[in-house]
């Protein structure tokens, strides 16, 4: 499928793996139900690199700092999803959806290093560790194709 990249909001995301190979999932604040979970992600600020933006978003949404991380890998392609009819972006101009760059990190901290109220408005109400291959079923359906790609690309970091 051919897309015009200018119609998509540039964003970044982080797959955070613990020592057992599980991934960090947060429940979107104010949402319930089986599809209210996702990885830390958000928009790039003007002029910031993809990796810096990913680490900033991770800190803003989880309180986790680079002191407790080691890099595992990244996906160099933009991953796209479209907003379904009736879903409008929260910020900025109207976009058709998001284009995202994704990074994987190993988390070496403990639960005491997670703080969901670190920065501004709270993104997540709770969090848990989950199996990577189960995550596409836990996200809102219009993001599922991105999570299926993440499951494939980052499978090597999910220690079994």
Question: How do the strands and helices of this protein lay out in sequence?
Answer:
Blueprint: E1 8-17, E2 23-28, E3 37-38, E4 41-43, H1 50-62, E5 69-82, E6 97-107, E7 124-130, H2 144-153
Parallel strand pairs: 1-6
Antiparallel strand pairs: 1-4, 2-3, 2-7, 5-6
Walk me through what this model shows:
It is a single chain. With 160 residues, the chain is an alpha+beta fold. The protein has a single domain (5-157), classed as Nucleoside Triphosphate Pyrophosphohydrolase (Alpha-Beta Complex). It has helices at 50-62, 144-153, and strands spanning 8-17, 23-28, 37-38, 41-43, 69-82, 97-107, 124-130. The strands form two sheets. It has a four-stranded mixed β-sheet. Strands 3-2-7 form a three-stranded antiparallel β-sheet, with no helix packed on it. The mean pLDDT is 94. Residues 7-152 form the Nudix hydrolase domain. Belongs to the Nudix hydrolase family. RppH subfamily. Keywords: Hydrolase.
């Amino acid at each position: 499928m051919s897309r015009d990249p200018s119609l998509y909001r540039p964003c970044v995301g982080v797959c955070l793996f613990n020592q057992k190979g599980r991934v960090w999932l947060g429940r979107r604040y104010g949402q319930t139900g089986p599809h209210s979970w996702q990885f830390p992600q958000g928009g790039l600020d003007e002029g910031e690199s993809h990796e810096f933006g990913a680490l900033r978003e991770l800190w803003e949404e989880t309180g986790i700092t680079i002191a407790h991380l080691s890099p595992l890998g990244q996906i160099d392609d933009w991953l796209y999803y479209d907003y379904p009819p009736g879903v409008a972006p929260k910020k900025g101009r109207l976009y058709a959806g998001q284009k995202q760059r994704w990074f994987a990190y190993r988390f070496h901290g403990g639960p005491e290093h997670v703080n969901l109220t670190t920065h501004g408005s709270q993104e997540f109400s709770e969090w848990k560790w989950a199996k990577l291959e189960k995550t596409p079923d836990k996200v809102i359906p219009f993001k599922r194709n991105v999570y299926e790609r993440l499951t494939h690309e980052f499978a090597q970091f999910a220690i079994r």
